Amino acid sequence: MGRGVFIEFWQHQKIYHFFFGILVLLLIFTCLVSLSKVSYSNEENVLAEDTNEKILNYIPIVNISSSVSSSSNSQYSIQPDCPVESWNTIRTNSIPNSELHKKLASNFSKSEYLYHTTPSVLAAFVYKDQITVTLTSENHKTVYCRYFDCQRREIPDQFYSVIFPQSTVLCARRPEAKYISITRNFTDTPEYPVPIIPRLEKEPPHYFTVCMATLYGDEPKFLQIVDFIEYYKLQGATFFHIYLRNVTDYDRVLLDDYVRTGDIEIIKMHDHHWRDDFMWHNAQINDCHHRNKYFSKWTALIDIDERIEMKNENHKTILSYLSSIHNSSIVNLHFQVQWVIKQNNTPARYESDEQLTREMLFHKYQNVSQVGGIWDQPKCIIRPEKIVAMTIHIPRAVYSGDRFTLIKPSVGVVRHYRNVEQRVFAGALKRMMSHGPFTIQPIPKWLREELTERILKRIKSVYNVVDEPCRKKQRIYRMHHIDAPCWLEKRKSKMLD
């Protein structure tokens, strides 16, 4: 009996120790978790402080001039839901070259063009010391720059400015400004703000770019568009700004394909005030000028029917010639014009390689005039950041360098394909014909062959859509529980038979 009691006691003791051990382990585990949380919390705080310190060290407050202050002095408190960007922490109080602008403004015509009652903002570009806003209106009124953050909330730190040069407002910089608008008065409701596009790289990303004047009118343009772009790509251009008023849906497919491949940017020319299509030219030239500042070293401003052609054997392309220029005073290359008689419109659609090759401008039209005078509709290649203001044919003023450098016709000219149908400007045909006698002058053989190949390749990649027989189309349509139009037509014709 004594032994049985002992065994029973011992078994109870084992159970007791077992549960006691589990309780001890749970207590130790709880303590460890609590300690780890405290440690992790401390590490997290240290990490956050270290990160904040690194961010502050990484984002410099750049002091451009005495007129620049850091974002900490801004009246606007940065919202936490807008990311801090190192390039966008600057506040300026004035505009560079403002005294020069005042002096030039007194010599510029102040006559208002068109009937705009609002500034009508087109685009905005930020440079290291200012923001340039381009407009579709053209006048010299005083205005206010209105800034908005990444959430399009207005930053209460407006800047008083003036429309100068024509269709341009120069604004001071504001920290965290991502959008901008312009108003006539301080209390006016702003038009929809536009994004501010950075132009802040140390070196322009492009060496030679081209702006195509506004596309409009009833002549089909797909062939002229591909000819223009592929021609200037062969001349060394690496990007194009295409200004668009209207084209056919067929033409637009080609433009959109060039956007897809990163060759071009399309700028739609439109606002809510009346003007005829040809009246967009001044606003287009102005926007091209500012859009290419610090984006490209050289920019050509030309029409869809103009080809700058190098004549010198030492420089077969425009890029080759530009690369040979080392004189910093050369900021505008001034090219004279030769006109080419163009009797017909270009085709509306691609039909075949033979048809397209036959209709290519440089194959079909080679009857060329004599070289026009210095001021007979010349065209330019400019250094955008050196120019104060542009007109269609020449800079109105420059910041530095010579206003224009005349290119001898033996070095380069503009080949202008002038349509004999006078759509807008009376006297254009008569002006062209006054520069006779005309002679047959084909473009160089290497250029003719390479350009033909490139045009065909691009056009076929866009428009040569592979078709399928009706029965195959019907199979796909039936997957959507409908019939193919061609299938319905076949059934209809059988019923009529």
Automatic annotation (TrEMBL):
UniProt membrane topology term: Single-pass membrane protein
Keywords: Glycosyltransferase, Membrane, Transferase, Transmembrane, Transmembrane helix
An annotated GO cellular component: membrane
UniProt EC number: 2.4.1.-
A molecular function (GO) term: glycosyltransferase activity
Location in the cell: Membrane
Transmembrane segments: 15-35
Protein origin, superkingdom: Eukaryota
Family membership noted in the UniProt record: Belongs to the glycosyltransferase 92 family.
Stated name of the protein: Glycosyltransferase family 92 protein
Lineage: Eukaryota, Metazoa, Ecdysozoa, Nematoda, Chromadorea
Gene (UniProt): Cnig_chr_V.g16533
